[in-house]
Amino acid sequence: PPTALMSLWQQPGLLLRALTAALVLFPLGAGLIGYVCLKDLPNVVPIAVGLVALAAAPGAPLLTQRASMAGGNLAIATSFQVTLASLAVVTTPLTLLIFTVLFAKVEASGDFLSIAKQVLTVQFLPLGLGILMRRLGGESAANIGELLTTVANTLFIVLLIFLLGFSLVTIPTVPWRGLAVIPLIVGFGLACGHLLGGTALGDRSAIATGTIARNAGLALFLVVANGAAQAIPTIIAYMVVGSLTALPYNVWIKKQQRAIAAPDSAPSAA
Predict the structure, then answer these.
(1) 247-270 per-position pLDDT tens digit
(2) pLDDT above 70 coverage of the chain, percent
(3) Residue 9, Cα to own-chain centre: how many angstroms?
(4) How far, rounded to the nearest angstrom, does the alpha carbon of residue 17 sit from its chain's CA centroid?
(5) Residues 190, 196, 199, 205, Cα dihedral to 10°
(6) Would the pTM count as exceeding 0.85?
(7) Averaged over 221-229, what is the pLDDT?
(8) What is the number of other CB atoms lying within 10 angstroms of the CB of residue 191?
(9) What is residue 264's three-state secondary structure?
């Protein structure tokens, strides 16, 4: 609903901190951690390109599903997803430009206007059409929205099954140091999002999850469109290993929420 889209924008301080976590700290941390851990690894370029593509691709399409599993505030998660997707047209080519300047080895393309057009096509255009349809369609759009929600939930399950199956083939091709660096990056992103996510656990979980939930579809599109398909296994590995890394955090958040809710739901003493 429109109110969900506005929920983060109505809290400018939280919005600024959330964007700092997802668009500044996460790419910076991913770059530094990757450089320190992988700088002397032979054939590091495919791993580096994959991590850079992920760092430059915020706004995972199924963020609300992931936030729900993590005990996150769904309104904040929805607003965060829309905001990141909208800004990606600018932030994705800018992030790639910065990484290209700092690390020449990860350069995929010098045509950053072309990258911005790719992001516009893959990310912003479908999102804009969806919002416009909801604003103009009235009750019929609401019915379509419910149908799309069901479809999204189904696709989320299908995507998980597909990733697990595909990962059995692709992940073994990633060097163990490339796999080991993923939990470090995810842990750093969760910490940034949690610490900058305010005081409410639901908000903290939504921001933390949104920080690490990169748009794998956009990242895959970028590497393939720029002739770096060898980076695909790293992106798939991030999706699988990253989700497993975040699982203890999700469990801890829900445990904390149950602990807070328990005294409120307990019957008062006579």
Answers:
(1) 999 999 999 998 888 775 555 544
(2) 71
(3) 19
(4) 16
(5) -30
(6) no
(7) 81
(8) 16
(9) helix
Cα 93 from chain centre = 17
CB contact at 8 A, 87 and 25: no
* Cβ atoms of residues 31 and 99 within 8 Å: yes
Q: Are 58 and 88 in contact (CB under 8 A)?
A: yes
Compute the distance between CA of residue 99 and CA of residue 234 in angstroms, rounded to an integer: 17
Spatial CA neighbour of 243 closest among 182, 195, 193, 197: 182
The pair of structure tokens assigned to 166 is: 């595909």
Mean of all residue pLDDT scores within the chain: 79
Dihedral sign, Cα of residue 149, residue 155, residue 156, residue 158:
positive
- Whether 234 contacts 34, CB under 8 Å: no
Sign of torsion, CA 45 46 47 51?
positive
Residue pair 58/23 in contact (Cβ under 8 Å)? The answer is yes
What is the per-residue DSSP string for 62-93?
Answer: THHHHHHHTT--HHHHHHHHHHHHHHHHHHHH
- CA neighbor of 85 nearest in space, from 169, 175, 22: 22
53-71 per-position pLDDT tens digit: 999 989 877 777 788 888 8
Decide: residue 35, CB within 10 A, 0-12 exposed, 13-18 middle, 19+ buried: middle
For residues 97 and 186, what is the distance between their CA atoms, to the nearest angstrom? 23
